């Protein structure tokens, strides 16, 4: 019998809150984190998209000036979220050789890389900072979190585009199940609101161009959806072997019951219209969690608000859950946070865990005319009460490259009221 | 041309910016590695910032000879002359 893994700490810095309590409160209320960008580079490069969803609180509120100077913004977000999750877990003493990190990113230190390129061209190689390499490497967030916590059982960096953050949960679960670690700090971070990624995502027609109305641009499942909204931030979860958590009397949010990762092998960016890879991922996560489709009451969907992406996820949910899909309430929280790329799966895992813990599904905003080809029960307006008894919720993430990752969270106790 | 006092004050400012150490902790007899706990990456950043601030060249092979703050002040003063 594999070791059971529970979630005992949560952290986040997002476009709708600088920490978990604020992010969660806003996710229930339904707020948009998308705003017009006022940076000079938007005009300078005549970018086709003028808005994005920035974190509400700068990392400098948590990090010292010297700490921040040595970290790419993506790593700054990772450390901010991981510190909150660690404190939230209440862990005081731990065998550091049994503590691991699995911290994802989609792109890594893109700000650092491109700043260094500007410096090289404008001022020459002597002015390229000696910290450039450790700041731009994609394992920077995982390495910094490992250093910060003294985690010595390994520091892993899943990179699978927008599935990265969810794949980190998969790696964390496997590390604990296999006995290689007792506790894992699992998460994802991204900081790519920079003119180059903005131009590149716009070039592939992935971004919404609703420049005159950013707050209503991210509208998953709406017939008038026209692309995703670039977000940034980080999410972090403390995963812990159940016996380890029980021995220290930890507060347990829920069980990380199952995870899965599959690949489409269909197209480098387009989702398989039949959702076959996503279907296999959903079924595999349920199997891994020793669960049935009927156990699932809620899904935090990938739902990025692109014209081509939202429908195949429905097709996959329909295929994996069968008729039971009609009984499952779905939240598309990217309508609020925008798309945090490699961090999205981590932030949405945090929201999925809280939905199970508080028995409340967060709201989807901007859904005015639901796409008739996506007949899901979408939570809009006010949060949805989830049923009592033992429940399960899923978090889906899919990434360019055909990556599919799913997390299944099971309740470990009765509803816990919001404090 | 900066005086030795001005070079010391300027270096202290650069060290503070890079490491967060209080400027008054940056004294002539202090060793960059043993007393101020400055690693090689920070040292290179400090050197490059000092080059720009004092308009001098500090060759890479010279950096290993700059053991104390005083060594750096003397080198910069000499390089300016």
How would you sum up this structure, described in words?
The complex is a heterodimer of chains A (419) and B (81). Chain A has 419 residues and is α/β, with parallel strands linked by helices. Chain A has 2 domains: 5-247, Peroxisomal Thiolase, Chain A, domain 1, CATH 3.40.47; 258-410, Peroxisomal Thiolase, Chain A, domain 1 (3-Layer(aba) Sandwich). In chain A, 33% of the residues lie in helices and 19% in strands. Chain A contains 14 helices and 15 strands. Chain A has helices at residues 20-29, 40-44, 65-69, 73-89, 110-123, 132-136, 140-149, 164-177, 195-203, 242-247, 276-288, 310-321, 334-337, 344-358, and strands at residues 5-13, 35-36, 51-52, 99-104, 155-156, 183-190, 233-241, 254-263, 296-300, 329-331, 360-361, 377-378, 384-385, 392-399, 403-410. In chain A, the strands form 3 sheets. Chain A has an 11-stranded mixed β-sheet with strand order 5-4-6-7-1-8-15-14-9-10-12, with helices on both faces. A two-stranded antiparallel ribbon of chain A has the order 2-3. Chain A has a two-stranded antiparallel sheet with strand order 11-13. By secondary structure, chain B is mainly α. Chain B has one domain: ACP-like (Non-ribosomal Peptide Synthetase Peptidyl Carrier Protein, Chain A, Orthogonal Bundle), CATH 1.10.1200. Chain B has helices at 4-19, 40-54, 60-63, 69-80. In chain B, helix 1 crosses helix 2 (40-54) and helix 1 (4-19) crosses helix 4. The radius of gyration of chain B is 11 Å and the shape is globular. The N and C termini of chain B lie close together (8 Å). The chains are: A alpha/beta (419), B mainly alpha (81).
């Amino acid at each position: 019998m594999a070791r059971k893994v529970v979630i005992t700490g949560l952290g986040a810095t997002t476009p709708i809150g600088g920490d978990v309590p604020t992010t969660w409160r806003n996710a229930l209320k339904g707020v948009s984190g998308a705003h017009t960008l006022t940076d000079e580079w938007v005009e300078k490069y005549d970018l086709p998209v003028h808005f994005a969803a920035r974190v509400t609180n700068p990392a400098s509120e948590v990090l010292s000036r010297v700490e921040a100077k040595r970290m790419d913004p993506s790593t700054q977000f990772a450390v901010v979220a991981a510190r909150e999750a660690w404190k939230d877990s209440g862990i005081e003493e731990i065998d550091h050789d049994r503590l691991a990190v699995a911290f994802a990113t989609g792109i890594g230190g893109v700000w650092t890389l491109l700043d260094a390129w500007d410096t090289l061209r404008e001022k020459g190689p002597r002015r390229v900072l000696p910290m450039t390499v450790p700041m731009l490497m994609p394992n920077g967030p995982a390495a910094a979190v490992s250093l910060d916590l003294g985690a010595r059982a390994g520091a892993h960096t899943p990179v699978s585009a927008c599935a990265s953050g969810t794949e980190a949960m998969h790696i964390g679960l496997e590390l604990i199940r296999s006995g290689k670690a007792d506790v894992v700090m699992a998460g994802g971070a991204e900081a790519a609101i920079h003119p180059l990624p903005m131009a590149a995502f716009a070039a592939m027609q992935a971004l919404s161009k609703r420049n005159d109305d950013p707050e209503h641009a991210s509208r998953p499942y709406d017939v008038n959806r026209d692309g995703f909204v670039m977000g940034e931030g980080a999410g972090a979860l403390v995963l812990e072997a159940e016996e380890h958590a029980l021995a220290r009397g930890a507060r347990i949010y829920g069980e990380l019951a199952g995870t899965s990762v599959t690949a489409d092998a269909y197209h480098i960016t387009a989702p398989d219209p039949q959702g076959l890879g996503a279907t296999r991922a959903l079924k595999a996560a349920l199997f891994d969690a020793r669960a049935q489709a009927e156990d699932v009451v809620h899904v935090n969907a990938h739902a990025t608000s692109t014209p081509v992406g939202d429908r195949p996820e429905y097709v996959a949910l329909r295929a994996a859950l069968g008729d039971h899909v009609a009984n499952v309430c779905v939240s598309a929280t990217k309508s609020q946070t925008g798309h945090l790329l490699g961090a999205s799966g981590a932030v949405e895992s945090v929201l999925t865990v809280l939905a199970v813990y508080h028995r409340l599904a967060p709201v989807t905003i901007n859904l005015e005319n639901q796409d008739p080809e996506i007949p899901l029960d979408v939570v809009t307006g006010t949060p949805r009460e989830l049923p009592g008894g033992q429940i399960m919720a899923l978090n889906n993430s899919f990434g360019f490259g055909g990556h599919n990752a799913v997390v299944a969270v099971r309740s470990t106790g009765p509803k816990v009221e919001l404090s | 041309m900066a005086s030795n006092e001005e070079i010391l004050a300027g270096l202290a400012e650069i060290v503070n910016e890079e490491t967060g150490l209080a400027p008054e902790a940056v004294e002539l007899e202090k060793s960059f590695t043993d007393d101020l706990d400055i690693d090689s990456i920070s040292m290179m950043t400090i050197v490059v910032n000092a080059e720009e601030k004092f308009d001098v060249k500090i060759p890479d092979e010279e950096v290993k000879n700059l053991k104390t703050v005083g060594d750096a002040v003397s080198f910069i003063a000499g390089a300016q002359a």
